[in-house]
Amino acid sequence: MNQKKEHFYCPYCDAEITEANLPLCQVCGVTIFYCPVCREPLPRDKKVCPSCGADIREEAAKEG
Predict the structure, then answer these.
(1) Is the pTM of this model over 0.70?
(2) Residues in contact with 8: Cβ distance below 8 Å, sequence separation at least 6, in sequence order
(3) pLDDT per residue over 16-36, tens digit each?
(4) Cα separation of 27 and 6, whole Å?
């Protein structure tokens, strides 16, 4: 089977993030927030995930 490698990019400096679960960008040092639904990195000021359309605040409230 051919597995597609996912690429994640810092929403602040656009550097590629080598591990999707790292809490910060290795290039610019900014702590990265991830969508609780699709796990894509996104700026903290977003209310809706641009990748999957999830309401960030609603999903975060469900988690805890």
Answers:
(1) no
(2) 16, 17, 20, 40, 41
(3) 887 755 778 888 888 888 888
(4) 19
